[in-house]
Specification:
The protein is an alpha/beta fold. The chain folds into two domains: about 180 residues, FAD/NAD(P)-binding domain (3-Layer(bba) Sandwich); about 170 residues, FAD/NAD(P)-binding domain (3-Layer(bba) Sandwich). The chain contains ten helices and 23 strands. The strands form seven sheets. Strands 5-2-1-9-19 form a five-stranded parallel β-sheet, with helices on one face. A five-stranded parallel β-sheet has the order 10-17-11-12-13. Strands 6-7-8 form a three-stranded antiparallel β-sheet, with no helix packed on it. A hairpin with a 4-residue loop joins strand 15 and strand 16. Helix 1 runs parallel beside helix 9. It is globular. The two termini are about 30 Å apart.
């Protein structure tokens, strides 16, 4: 009996579990994840904006595990020894494996700024963001939160700012807390082309969201943020959506990594140093094929990862998987309005939001059927 261990229940691994509803013979599948569900990142801004309930944004990982006749350990991985082929977990469990797959995402950079871990609400894991927003909204309703600062002007940070603005203004109108957006880049969403950035900037200005660009935050304290240019702002809550870093236990595992510490894989989604280890999503980088850390690439990796794991378990060579670098980005503007970005093109409107809503709901439903 061979053992396949799936660490993390991200976008790629839920597709592996769906595929393994008919598991290979003589294979034991063990899933390690801190929660028995997946909070789908594409719908979290809609939850913040008030368009979805939390249940509508969730995939029942425990149910997927049961359908795959697998075993779920609700805990986090804390160490990996690829020489011994063992994963150590926070609950003390030590799992031996024949084949290992990693889909644990990324985390906020530990050294991003002084005080971030203690005083800011981090976007990863998403459960931390959900709780932070729920507490902030309750505080705003009770009159305890008057100012909110969101750090990070990439697509995730901007979309979160739009969602917060819509929810707060919808409920409290002019009494809503002041919202501030801070980024170290001189342009908003630098990964997008100029036309898309102009559309996003116009939406920021139309909502009168305070915007500070070109200087990063160097310290987050109790009730303030301090910028590199010397500015300091009073704030009741700070949300941190700037940057992504690898998990330290993976960086220290001995697996081959890229220059930033993310697991380095080949064109078959295998570790470049340990061929019995596979990785997908934000925790991994594919050698020779750099791309943005966007959820779409984890979704695309799901079916080929499932096929690669089946091949590895049966002693066959997995097929190559090199996804195209272009991808569709749909940025909700808070209300039922969105901006679409594809390669050098962009568009916007209520119909774009309806398109995004349909895509997101269909994705979640795929794992409920």
């Amino acid at each position: 009996m061979k053992r396949l261990v799936l660490v993390g229940a991200g976008h790629a691994h839920i597709e592996v579990l769906r595929n393994f509803a008919h598991p290979p013979p003589d294979v034991e599948v063990v899933v390690v994840n801190p929660y028995p569900w997946l909070t789908y990142s594409g719908m979290v801004p809609g939850f913040v904006a008030g368009h979805y309930t939390l249940d509508e944004c969730a995939v029942d990982v425990a149910a997927l595990v049961a359908r795959a006749n697998a075993r779920l350990l609700v805990t986090a991985a804390t160490a990996l020894d690829p020489k011994a082929r063992q994963v150590r977990c926070a609950n003390g469990a030590i799992l031996d494996y024949d084949v290992l797959s990693l889909d644990v995402g990324s985390q906020a950079p530990a050294d991003a700024a002084a005080g971030v871990e203690r005083h800011a609400v981090l976007m990863r894991p998403l459960e931390r963001l959900v709780k932070g927003w729920t507490d902030t909204l309750a505080g705003a309703r009770a009159g305890r939160v008057h100012s909110i600062t969101l750090v990070g002007t990439g697509a995730a940070g901007v979309e979160l700012a739009f969602a917060m603005h819509h929810r707060l203004r919808s409920e409290m109108a002019e009494a809503a807390p002041h919202l501030r957006l801070i980024g170290d880049s001189r342009v908003v969403v630098p990964a997008f082309h100029p036309g898309a950035r102009r559309r996003i900037r116009a939406e920021i200005e139309a909502r009168r969201i305070e915007w500070h660009q070109g200087s990063g935050v160097v310290e987050v304290g109790s009730g303030f943020v301090h910028l590199q240019n010397g500015f300091e702002f009073a704030t009741d809550v700070v949300f941190w959506a700037a940057g992504a870093a690898p998990h330290r236990w993976l960086t220290e595992s001995g697996l081959a990594t890229d220059t930033r510490g993310f697991v380095l894989t080949d064109e078959r989604l295998r570790s470049c140093s340990h061929p019995e280890v596979f990785a997908a999503g934000d925790c991994a980088s594919q050698q020779g094929h750099p791309r943005a850390r966007a959820g779409v690439f984890a979704v695309r990796a799901g079916p080929p990862l499932a096929a690669a794991l089946r091949a590895a378990l049966s002693g066959r060579e997995p097929r190559r998987h090199v996804p195209r670098s272009r991808y569709l980005a749909l940025i909700s503007a808070g209300n039922r309005y969105a901006i679409g970005v594809w390669d050098g093109f962009s568009w916007e409107g209520e119909w774009v939001w309806r398109w995004k809503d349909r895509i997101d709901r269909q994705f979640v439903q795929r794992y409920r059927s």
